[in-house]
């Protein structure tokens, strides 16, 4: 009877041991099955990190491109400003040169007037003299020099009166010529590069 009880007890213990072993195996199986899920999360994190890295690089690249565009735009503006400054400086220099040249020409015109009046007073015999010929040569050289500089005499005689170039100091009734025509020139006028240095003093027919 005792042996039978002992056998029952042993069988019961074996069953309990088997049950515990099954539970342990099941827990191990569950743990083993959970590993891939962890690996999957790791892969997701890795993909997320890679995406974040790419996004960060793209942001940096966009910032660099923006900086390059800003610097390029600034350089273009500076170059344009410098070009405008250069043109303005050249224009101012040319204007200053023209003002200086006109002042010199204004000083020369009375000398030219003196040569012309002196040569007009010479008689036919005096014109042949060496002194008169020398004066005429100097006068012609002077006129050639101012012509090379861009100084030109204003045409007035027998031309229609033009207030942009002529200064009417006298009017006369003359039916032999048309109205508003210059019939006499008292003082020759000159232009320098299309700018009037001195107006022609003229007599105009009404």
Radius of gyration using CA atoms only: 55 Å
What is the overall silhouette?
A: elongated
Task: Calculate the terminal CA-CA distance, rounded to whole Å.
Answer: 169 Å
* SSE order: HHHEEEEEE
Show unreliable segments. 1-8, 29-35
Give the % helix.
Answer: 55-70%
Across the major sheet, the strand order is 1-4-5
What is the quaternary state of this protein?
single chain
Main location: cytoplasm
GO biological process, one term: protein folding
Biased composition (Polar residues): 1-11
Protein name: Protein GrpE
Describe the structure.
The protein has helices at residues 2-120, 124-127, 130-148, and strands at 151-153, 166-172, 181-187, 190-192, 195-198, 200-205. The protein has 206 residues and is of the alpha+beta class. It folds into 2 domains: 56-149, Hemagglutinin Ectodomain, Chain B (Alpha-Beta Complex), CATH 3.90.20; 151-206, Head domain of nucleotide exchange factor GrpE (Nucleotide Exchange Factor Grpe, Chain A, domain 2, Roll). It has a 3-stranded antiparallel sheet. Strands 2-6-3 form a 3-stranded mixed sheet, with no helix packed on it. The longest helix is centred in the N-terminal third of the chain and has 119 residues, at 2-120. Residues 1-8 and 29-35 have low confidence and may be disordered. It is found in: Cytoplasm. Residues 1-66 are annotated as: Disordered. Keywords: Chaperone, Cytoplasm, Stress response. One of its GO terms (molecular function) is adenyl-nucleotide exchange factor activity.
